[in-house]
Amino acid sequence: MGKINIAIAGIGNCASSLLQGIEMYKHSPDDSIGLMHYDLGGYTPGDVNVVAAFDVDKRKVGKPLKEAIFAKPNCTTVFYDKLPDYPVKVQMGPVMDGVSEHMADYPSDQSFLPADEKPCDVAKVLTESGAEILINYLPVGSEEAVKYYAEACLEANVGFINAMPVFIASDETWAKKFQDKNIPIIGDDVKSQVGATIIHRTLTKLFENRGVILDRTYQLNFGGNTDFLNMLNHSRLTSKKKSKTQSVQSELKTALDSNNIHIGPSDYIPWLKDNKICHIRMEGRGFGHVPLTVDVKLSVEDAPNSGGVMIDAIRCMKLALDRQIGGILNSIAAYSMKSPPVQYTDTEAKKMVEEFIEGRRER
Fold first, then answer.
1. Hey, which of 160, 215, 242, 245 has its CA 20 to 30 A from 64?
2. Domain total for the chain?
3. pTM score, two decimals?
4. Could you report the per-residue pLDDT of 61-74, keeping only the tens digit for each?
5. For residue 184, which of 87, 318, 51 has the smallest C-alpha distance?
6. Residue 183 per-residue DSSP state
């Protein structure tokens, strides 16, 4: 079927896990643990080929990609270190609002250190590299920087996968721009395979299906990677909290009052590194209005947890490119993202994705 040429904006923990996984599964064709599909429409993990990379940290900019994905402040688990010598060096992207000012108050091996270099022309690099798809892994709160990369994709005719919570795919104006140019887009805010949001959604749907009224709920998350450090600046959290909250609310026939639902990051604990701890509490009433309570604790390595989802999103977008389908890819967006343009239950979304892969559904 050929290669899938991708570019990555943000060479952090998620990029590191994704590339490690691509190489591990490429050399282990009988190993399907952690994958929803080994073969997806004729494409396997090893068909994903990185042709361009962008970051702003001086420990990564100008460095070979193989070196940059293990550079500080990355701290995710290294589960496969036999990486090839990618013919790619990390290029300087625009800083814009990508680095929160409070990062300067923390040790350098935990925070971002912006390089003092002139940003490249991202659209030009995308065109010259032969990239077909750009994955956006920028930090939460990078509103203007994300829009810059989205515009670069429109200029370079490159598909856009928005893995973080700035609303591009789910914004009508942006969605129309991609539709008008027949460029595929998937977004917004990637789900994990078994993460806080998917568990919270599943339990919420269980309450609904079993006739139990959910009265109030919270989800608290904390960890030790740069994502959690970045989110200590609560002014950057508006879209993140909205994304996670509406993903859970969408499973309810009647949404909870805002006073009865709280979902969002809680704190930064450096020694946890890329380990994410989540606490979910759900209070409801069942038969006879008798109260019941559910408490859940999840501990998971954050970056690898989204890798299996992303590798399917990449290959679904490649199928769309092969079929000359542009605009929102609703099936894989609903399955892989917290804030897709149209919310479906996870069961419905999975069925839609299988139909799309088989060619029985256009989007």
1. 160
2. 2
3. 0.96
4. 999 999 999 999 99
5. 318
6. -
